[in-house]
Amino acid sequence: MFRATILAVVLAALVAAGCGSDDDTDTSGGGAATSGDAMESDGDAMEKSGDAMESDTVALAGAGDEPAAMAAKRRGKRIKVVNSQFGRVIADGKGEALYLFDKEKTKRARCYGACAAAWPPVLTKGRPRAGRGAKAGKLGTTRRRDGRRQVTYNGHPLYYYVDDAPGTILCHDVFEYGGLWLVVNPSGRAVG
């Protein structure tokens, strides 16, 4: 209960701050564990997790139905292309736009702690799947420090913005946590 209260206070502060108004530019989270690192796991509770519906259909498969359960577990996050005010951009299976962080020059994620609370990573339990308009060859994953797999597209780790919803892009081309957050076009490049 106490943990949930703290998380609610932190979330309220993040929402009140809005995108583009951070004071914390340390996204690496290197070294000793910090309260930001603790927020990574707590903040992930608020991640835009269609994973439960898209890739964890294991619970729907009968307990004795092992082959169906194994096949469902291998299914990963579906990535597709949607139309937006910024043109055609990649999105999750529900149509929520995905962002890249221009500070990340390789597929190694650098957004943890408070950064990951505001910009939840797109996680998958299986290999990501290409939906309408997405290029399967550009999809991949990278391991986060906690061992979970984050979806990449054209080598870029992908993120949600915490206050976006399907069809709503609030924080494209915003400088926060030491870099720009940009939606991604179907070829895998940041939308300028």
Give a summary of the structure in a few sentences.
This protein has 192 residues and is an alpha+beta fold. It contains five helices and ten strands, in the order H-H-H-H-E-E-E-H-E-E-E-E-E-E-E.
Description:
- With 192 residues, the protein is an alpha+beta fold.
- The chain has one domain (2-48, 77-183).
- It is 22% helix and 23% strand.
- It contains 5 helices and 10 strands, in the order ααααβββαβββββββ.
- The longest helix is centred in the first third of the chain and has 16 residues, at 2-17.
- The radius of gyration is 16 Å and the shape is globular.
- It starts with a helix and ends in a 9-residue tail after the last strand.
